[in-house]
Backbone:
């Protein structure tokens, strides 16, 4: 009897695992394959018109497609740090939070994340913390706070003055950061970023907790562009942005990826119009630029 029950439990677990796998596969099935991506670039009328459809597809482009599949079923948890009802503004910052940017020392060294406008002082705060470490551990050193005017810190009084200066600067920067962050309602998948809402923007279930037409403005800042290749991202953007509202994609690059991502959306003409000059002068190798869409 026990063996029979155990067999049934194992069988159920296998079935559940299979169903989860099947669900994940189905959810990412709407994301185009690398082959489909290449075909879309080759045959897209806008890219043909501007002569960039025949340029070889780069590894950076195909990597974005792979990433879109890899992270298609990512979860943030759908947890509110600040209920939306408490926010009195009208702008959503996707990829924002009180602590966005570099969370660990190695992140600074490897450059794995880009500080967001909601925390533009991360690097400076990190440098000041490094100075505090040196202040504690080294009896003699030069003031890195003003590197162009080296001052030897060789007395207790000078150390105390510098320590006070560091604390005042850090508090000012933190106050400014909080004030800046409060202008936006923030969403990020990483809880370490301390966003208002911890969620994956590509997860329709988690994002369903944000009501329709919640924001007049939605800003994607330093958000990986591969998210745009996931149809769920487009669906959520259209749903939570008020009619007539704006969607801003900051620091965009790789225009062919944007053409493919928005080619079958209501924003297609807006994207094509804004990309026209970029591809005319720079081809597919553009500098960073912003795309602003009207919903």
Residues:
């Amino acid at each position: 009897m026990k063996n029979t029950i155990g067999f049934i439990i194992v069988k159920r677990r296998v079935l559940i695992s299979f169903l989860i796998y099947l669900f994940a596969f189905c959810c990412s099935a709407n994301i185009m394959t690398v082959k489909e991506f290449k075909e879309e670039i080759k045959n897209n009328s806008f890219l043909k018109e501007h002569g960039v459809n025949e340029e070889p597809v780069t590894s950076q482009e195909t990597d974005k497609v792979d990433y879109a599949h890899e992270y298609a079923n990512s979860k943030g948890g759908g947890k509110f740090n600040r209920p939306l009802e408490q926010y009195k503004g009208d702008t959503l910052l996707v990829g924002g939070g009180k602590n966005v940017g570099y969370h660990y020392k190695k992140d600074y060294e490897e450059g794995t994340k880009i500080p967001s406008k909601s925390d533009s002082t991360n690097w400076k705060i990190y440098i000041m913390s490094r100075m505090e470490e040196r202040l504690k551990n080294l009896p003699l050193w030069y003031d890195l706070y003003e590197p162009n005017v080296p001052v030897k810190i060789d007395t207790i009084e000078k150390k105390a003055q510098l320590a006070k200066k560091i604390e005042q600067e850090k508090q000012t920067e933190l106050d400014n950061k909080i004030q800046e962050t409060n202008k936006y309602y923030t969403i990020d998948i990483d809880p370490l970023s301390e966003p208002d809402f911890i969620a994956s923007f590509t997860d329709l279930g988690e994002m369903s907790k944000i009501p329709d037409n919640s924001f007049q403005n939605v800003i994607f800042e330093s958000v990986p562009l591969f998210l745009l290749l996931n149809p769920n991202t487009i669906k959520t953007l259209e749903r939570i942005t008020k009619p007539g509202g704006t969607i801003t994609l900051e620091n965009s690059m790789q225009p062919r990826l944007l053409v493919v991502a928005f080619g079958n959306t209501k924003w297609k003409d807006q994207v094509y119009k804004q990309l026209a000059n970029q591809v005319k002068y720079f081809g597919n190798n553009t500098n960073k630029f912003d795309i602003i869409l009207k919903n």
